[in-house]
């Protein structure tokens, strides 16, 4: 009897032991599920560099004759977890090789072995590690790293990045495109085509492309030993800008949003006068009316007219954009997301703008990689104070290299629903087009850099 009881007790104890082991395993499984994947560590940092055809203007034919080549750089961060990596745009076309070296020679050794899930912490570490900061080369390099980390986090979560930012505030981002041609008749034709055939509701004109400078025969002093014939006439530029926009408003009507890009090329007093002259046209905005060195004049413009203002594509530092936003001296912030340091600082600037009634209009020129455009699009979708998105068409070559490019239909840009930015890069194909491919003239001579503009007397013009 006693023996039987002992056996029963042993059986019960054994059963409890099995149950306890099962409970421990179940608890461990729940703990793993609630923790998610272990924190990935950075295993490698690479730069994918390629010279890619882009289509800079609406109305251009989709072939090589209607494209220009730009140097695109993308940071790829590879983690210690198989198949987990991310992409970020680090394109600075005019100084591409310097940015690539900043990533490979400085940021890579600094980042190796660090966890990818502390994005803001890593941003601050990269930003402060150089001591001297807020320069375009390092900012763009950090911007590529930052975007790649967000891409990794999205892939890890199995969500598009816009979901990590709180989800969509809208289904798609309204866009505007550039038009250009050698004369007013042609540029109006391209604008009408973009509106009627491609569905765009917003058009930007850069009169600099339609404003040839005077030749040396036209009374320019010349440049002597300075060695350039690129003469820019600011008076002609200002007159032409107003004339063209008046014609655009008359021909396109009141329903089309019109923008004009001054490209920082006017002296402050001329810029103030032009903003006043354009007030009657009820533009969507005037872009980059002043250079960063002259932003104090925005207060004077604000006091004299109601012309909407967009500014910021050359800004590197929050000390440049914060005063304009906090004092409501501009209507649209136009910083370049990669150049300002990536998604992390961009969403903070956007949040500041939401409180103060300043909307976003991120810089999206042809020398933004499709990865960079995707990053801007995810911000556009998730930020309540989105205003409009600059867009340039992707060439067939760009779409082959960058799979998953954002799509534009009837003037609206849509993101796909794949994790992260929703993009993959064909690295073997990109390697077939190294920097310098198809570059000619000054672009080739200056290693992708820009040349110069001068006034009639030889003075350098800001651009």
**Mean model confidence by pLDDT:** 89
Rg value = 27 Å
CATH architecture of the largest domain: Alpha-Beta Barrel
- Identify the quaternary structure here: single chain
Assign the structural class, choosing from mainly alpha, mainly beta, alpha/beta, alpha+beta, or little secondary structure: alpha/beta
Overall CATH class of the largest domain: Alpha Beta
Strand content: 15-25%
- Overall number of structural domains: 2
Biggest sheet character: 10 strands, mixed
**Proportion of residues in helical segments:** 40-55%
CATH superfamily of the largest domain: Enolase-like C-terminal domain
Task: List segments where confidence is low: pLDDT < 50 over at least 5 consecutive residues.
Answer: 61-65, 215-219
Determine the number of helices (DSSP H or I, runs of at least 4 residues): 15
How far the N terminus sits from the C terminus, by CA atoms, comes to: 101 Å
Annotated CATH topology of the largest domain: TIM Barrel
Rough outline: elongated
The overall strand count is: 16
Describe the structure.
With 463 residues, the chain is an alpha/beta fold. Helices cover 41% and strands 15% of the residues. It has helices spanning 2-35, 96-111, 119-129, 136-157, 161-164, 184-196, 234-252, 268-278, 298-304, 318-326, 343-356, 370-382, 396-401, 427-430, 441-445, and strands at residues 42-55, 68-79, 85-89, 173-179, 202-205, 257-261, 285-287, 309-311, 332-333, 359-360, 389-390, 393-394, 402-403, 407-409, 412-414, 424-425. The strands form three sheets. Strands 4, 5, 6, 7, 8, 9, 10, 11, 14 and 15 form a ten-stranded mixed beta sheet that branches. A hairpin with a 5-residue loop joins strand 2 and strand 3. Helix 2 packs across helix 4 and helix 6 (184-196) crosses helix 7. The longest helix is centred in the first third of the chain and has 34 residues, at 2-35. The protein is elongated. It starts with a helix and ends in an 18-residue tail after the last helix.
């Amino acid at each position: 009897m006693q023996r039987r009881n002992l056996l029963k007790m042993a059986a019960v104890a054994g059963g409890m032991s099995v149950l306890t082991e099962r409970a421990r395993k179940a608890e461990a499984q729940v703990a793993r599920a609630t923790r998610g994947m272990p924190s990935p560590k950075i295993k490698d940092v690479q730069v994918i560099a390629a010279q890619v055809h882009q289509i800079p203007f609406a109305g251009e034919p989709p072939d090589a004759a209607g494209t220009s080549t730009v140097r695109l750089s993308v940071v790829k961060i590879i983690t210690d977890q198989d198949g987990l990596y991310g992409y970020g745009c680090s394109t600075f076309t005019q100084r591409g090789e310097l940015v690539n070296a900043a990533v490979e020679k400085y940021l890579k050794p600094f980042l190796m072995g660090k966890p990818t899930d502390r994005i803001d912490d890593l941003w601050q570490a990269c930003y402060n590690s150089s001591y001297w900061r807020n320069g375009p080369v390092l900012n763009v390099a950090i911007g590529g790293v930052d975007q790649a980390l967000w891409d990794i986090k999205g892939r890890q979560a199995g969500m598009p990045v816009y979901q990590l930012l709180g989800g969509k505030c809208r289904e798609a981002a309204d866009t505007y495109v550039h038009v250009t041609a050698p004369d007013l008749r042609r540029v109006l034709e391209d604008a009408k085509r973009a509106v009627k055939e491609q569905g765009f509701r917003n058009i930007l004109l850069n009169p600099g492309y339609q404003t040839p400078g005077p030749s040396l025969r036209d009374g320019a002093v010349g440049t002597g030993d300075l060695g350039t014939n690129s003469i820019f006439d600011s008076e002609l530029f200002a007159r032409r800008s107003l004339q063209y926009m008046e014609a655009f408003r008359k021909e396109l009507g009141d329903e089309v949003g019109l923008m004009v890009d001054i490209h920082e090329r006017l002296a402050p007093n001329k810029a103030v006068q032009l903003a006043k002259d354009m007030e009657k046209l009820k533009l969507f905005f005037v872009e980059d009316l002043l250079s960063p060195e002259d932003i104090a004049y925005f207060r004077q413009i604000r006091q004299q007219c109601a012309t909407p203002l967009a500014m910021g594509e050359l800004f590197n530092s929050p000390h440049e954009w914060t005063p304009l936003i906090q004092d409501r001296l501009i209507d649209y912030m136009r910083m370049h997301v990669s150049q300002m340091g990536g998604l992390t600082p961009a969403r903070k600037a956007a949040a500041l703008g939401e409180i103060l009634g300043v909307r976003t209009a991120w810089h999206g020129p042809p020398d933004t990689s499709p990865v960079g455009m995707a990053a801007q699009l995810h911000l556009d979708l998730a930020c309540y104070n989105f205003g409009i998105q600059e867009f340039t068409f992707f060439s067939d070559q760009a779409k082959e290299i960058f799979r998953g490019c954002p799509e534009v239909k009837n003037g609206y840009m849509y993101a796909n629903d794949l994790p992260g930015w929703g993009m993959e890069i064909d690295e073997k194909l990109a390697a077939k087009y190294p920097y310098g491919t198809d570059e000619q003239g000054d672009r080739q001579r200056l290693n992708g850099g820009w040349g110069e503009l001068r006034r009639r007397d030889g003075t350098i013009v800001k651009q």
